[in-house]
Amino acid sequence: MSEDREAALQPSDKDAIVSAPLGNGTEVLATVNKYPGVGRLGWNGALIEDTSAFRLDVEQFYDMHTLLWDEAVGQTLDVRNDAVGSSVEYRSSRVPEISLHNAFEFRDGTTADLDQDVLVSVDTAALFVRSRAQFAAPSTRTIYTLFGLGIHDGSGSDDVDEAYVVHEHGYDFVVAHDSGRYLAIAQRRPATGQTTFDGCRVGRQGVPRGPEKSAWRDIYVENDGFVDDNDHLRGKVDVGFGLFVDDATDVTWVTAVGFGEDELTAVENALETLWNGYRAEQSMFAAVWESWHENCSGCPVDDGFATETYELSLTSMKCAQDRRGGIVAGAFKPQQFAYRFVWPRDLVVVIQAFLSAGAHVEAREALDWLYHAQITDEVTDSRGIDRYGTWWQNYYADWEPHWRALQLDQVGGPIYAHWLCWRETGDDSLLDAYYSMSRRAADFLLGWDDGGFPRRHQDPWEEIWGYTTEGSAAAIAGLRSMAELAVARGEPEYAAECHAVADTWAGSFDARCFRRDGLLGDHYVTATDPEWEDHPPADERPDAAAFMAYWPWNVVAADSDAMRSTVAHADDPAWSADGTPCVGRYPGDDYTPTGTAEDGGWPLCEAYADVVRWQGGVDADAVADHLFAHSQAWRTAAGLLPERVDGDGQVRWNSNLQWSQAMYVLLVESDARGEPFGFAPEG
Q1: If residue 666 lies in a helix (H) or strand (E), which one and from where to where?
Q2: Given this model, what pLDDT does residue 158 score?
Q3: Residue 220 and residue 4: Cα distance in Å, rounded?
Q4: Which residues contact 322 (CB under 8 A, 6 or more apart)?
């Protein structure tokens, strides 16, 4: 299926994600993408993509297509390539059942509509899809379902599967497996009781002809309404199977994908879901999600839009939490690499957001993930740095490291998260349980002194090695948080040492991080003494991460001359989107779908800037405007916030970035409290 594999490598927005908040359904995460996206490929459909199970960083299949073949017209229409229009929405802001609508028009003018509802079974590891196709006029038709398979974890997996057809308990199944991970796919048409396939092909993706030709080629490209059956193949496979509906004009069927660590479990999970039926699974799914939200504190502002976005953001963050406690940064694949990793930096912000919303269980589980991810072996990185007590740059969900650079916000941040969890929950058992983790991290920071300031490290955007503004502030916040923990544990001498070093670093902060002759004037920069050049230079450009030095790191006052001068430049068109009030990471940022600098901004960056405006006396309404007005232009059709928007505020990049969702929750909670939530301890 070369066309589909090509599409899988295109940047895409991922308008919605779905998982379950408890039970075996927490093992499954699926996304829905509504085209056209950032790839501008000319497609207008919406489909299920990039589904994972058992570890949210491991893909189980690339996409699930529905195709409609009409004999009289001699045409096969695909849900992604040929839909003339589509929509994606959630059942509600608290229940992430996804509804997709795709509209079609055949060559003879006949129209058709396809509506699909998608959820994850709570009690079994299974994805469940209910589909309804309605045709304007009768004709002889077959409906096909086609999967681009590829069990892939990004850590050396060859992305090769074995797939085959089996028949169990009256159902036809396609079973696929690789690396000890299995999935089983089956369908049922309730009106007729049909549980078998009308033709099934296991093919090899991208093969145009011969005995191994792809199912995509056989069903869509050849377009003859017949399947050249093939029930077994090894390799980079796809699979398609039919449902002959004759001249029916209103057809409903369900498709279940069960997951397991062996064939039997995968088949049983799919079967149990099908036997339960969609309505029963839907009822359970809604009940457990509503119950989860009831256990949170609830949106504290009385505004319909803000409440919906707040709840959607919480729902999204919970969907992205792996059963081990880690939260993948986003179920998204820009530029041929994935965000399906856990960044300690992002996780700390999500912990902060969960705590603000009363989701203490989730915050504690994420803190526990950090505890298990910490480096406790004597190991050096590629720079020869002894990394004991730190964290790697990002991880697979099972704590296996991926990228390995040193970022101080990923050393000081976890200490801060520990302190904040302890403070917000009032549970002294948390102080004891994770004290050794924080002490190890603080010991590293104390040893990372470079004569009165933290040594060089990687900046938060993972591009520059130098004395970074945000990372240095996070290191200061980490030591101050450690001091609070140490006092509570009866270690006043250690607390005093942490305070002394933090105060020394804070005293040098402006001298090291602020420039009076910068790119736009007087402002904080990304990093001083950068190891390599960037354009614009990292030691000359303003950087939105600097606003974090105020909140949450609490190192620089919002109304200080340096911070007010920096935020004054955040409205400059060189740094901010022209058509929407949203600042970017820094002027000239080329981390975009095109790889060139584009007009646009990052909602999470605007959030930090707006808190500075609000608390610094620049604009008392900055946060309220962000929450109730400006962000309305930034959401996807399903309501999630992106990593990046274009110059007019349209989604341009990654619409389920959990850092963005966390910032919205934090802004709502801060606005309701009248002050930012979660400041690190003062010096």
Answers
A1: helix 658-673
A2: 64
A3: 12
A4: 26, 55, 56, 57, 328, 342, 369, 397
